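Predict the 3D structure for this chain.
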Amino acid sequence: MTRQPYPPASRVELVEELHGVPVSDPYRWLEDSDDPATKDWLVGQERLLETELDILPGREGFKARITELLRSGSVSAPTWRGERQFFMRRTPGQEHAVLYTVDPGGTERALLDPMALDSTGLTTLDSWQPDKEGRLLAYQVSVGGDEESSLYLMDVAFGDRIEGPIDRCRYSPVAWLPGGEAFYYVRRLPATEVPEGEEQFHRRVYLHRVGTSTEEDVLIFGDGLEKTNYYGVAVSRDGRWLQISASRGTAPRNDLWVADLEASSPSSPDLVVVQQDVDAQTALHFGRDGRLYVFTDRDAPRARVCVTDPSDPRFENWRDLIPQDPEAVLTDFAILDDLDRPVMLAGWTRHAISEISVHDLATGERVGDVPTPGLGTIGGISERPEGGHEAWFGYTDNTTPPSIQRYDARTGETTLWAASPGAVEVPAVDTEQVTYRSADGSEVHMLVISRPGAEGPRPTILYGYGGFGLSMTPGYSASILSWVEAGGTYAIAQLRGGGEQGEEWHRAGMLSHKQNVFDDLHAAAEHLIATGVTTSSQLAISGGSNGGLLVGAALTQRPELYAAVVCSAPLLDMIRYELFGLGATWNVEYGSAEKPDEFAWLHSYSPYHHVREGECYPATLFTVFQSDTRVHPLHAWKMCAALQHAQACDRPILLRNEIEAGHGARSVSKTIELAADQLTFLAYHTGLTS
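Done. Predicted structure below.
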């Protein structure tokens, strides 16, 4: 194939000395998206991408198959308010899931359809929370992928919007007081009240009374605290107990307070410390039986459930109910108390495979297990707020579209409550969980998905994330199934930095230990090659966000090991990442270049700073989103220019820069287009010809 020339990108002799180390940044001008030179360069990259992708075979086939497999649709577990339920469902052909309610009489109706709000498909429903009686609904929407949520209120019975928008509510919880007259929520300060460049930070907890102006909202919490703090807020079902949590950015620890709203005013709660300046994550659940249930990884990196008296919730009063398991990670729990012997359901992952156990609520004794449909992933366990004997949970695995299961504690049976609404023909695949050793001898798990009976080396995509304690678990994926059906293998490595083995596993891949994550990926690739699954000329790696950092580091550290790379919404300039998007909230995960020792960690692997001229790099496709307010696309822009300049062979370095799309939720049609482009690129450069 004759390569088109890369769009010209001037290299600036810009070198800064940081902590005694010279740091080059020749493409800093690409940080300015409004610079005419940047705009011209992006236009050139778009033309190059179109030229390159248009001649690759198989795109329409991938697009058609992904479209068909996504016709499965989706459904969520119900949220109950008395006899009224709320749930999400996306039917075949719909661009977005729709929020429905089922009235106490059994009548189902749509409450919120993003396409009815905006026929372009650019508006997303980010979150929603009914009041405790199910009469009012708080919901948040954003436009164009920017995730800048605005908060609205709806009358559920009539479907009328009664308040909003309330802006600056990104990532805001909503905690209703009984009666639906007021709620706590989180809102950023106005841009006029914060230093320039800090508009994404400075959150506060407020009390809002329905029917009043937000100018009258009462500031409850957050004044004078860390600018990057995220806040959680919740009110117990009976309205007596308020809890507020604070975490610095995405740190795996939080401070926690409670207030008795019977003893103090909701507008001036007397907050009592539960946990402060402790290196642990803790959450509270006020039980209907008067006990306080504490979900924590304090002194238990795989998590445990404790009980205590809500009137004195200090750590020294906590008593283990469900202790830490030596192998499985506790992820969730629900209480079923309309039984002769009330129970707690405990959700676990064991090497990323989900299970649910049943425990005596009084003693914690394990008394049984909840039947599940297979070896897959359980997505949360929920019960009725007023109690009962039923629980609902989501289930999926590599060949099963998401479904909702119902467990009846009286009979011990699990039954299907709601299947994904679309019928699709899912290809047969085999999934094997393998283990391998990383560079330091650590044992790492990996899921390897192939067609039944597949033999011999074959084109393979190796996917990883390895950060923020997020676990890579089995799940239905139209992209994975399309790739495997076409004859490829798809491997998902459960790298350090994730949560598959608990908080210690996470911390083994963060801050000064970040290189462990990259070593784990390299070792996964070497294992796949050594066991005959693939060869380096047939092996691609793929990752997004923190996973984009992962594959960016991998392609600069071991370019000979990989044939192709898809790097999506990545962090790549780790020296300046804190200056853009939400970067300052992640220095608790990565470190800060302002500190000499942490700068050294970051500079040791920062992909942009390790591009070497004259190296033959893998064929690389950067996919970024112009409205991404989490990770600015400048990371990929600068890295793309650097690689295009340095590339010493004819493997292409391409940029897919999508407008009116962001880091998170998007319409189905945009999802299909992106996935088809990625698979087409990887198929060509790994030799997948089916």
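The CA atoms of residues 152 and 672 lie 30 Å apart.
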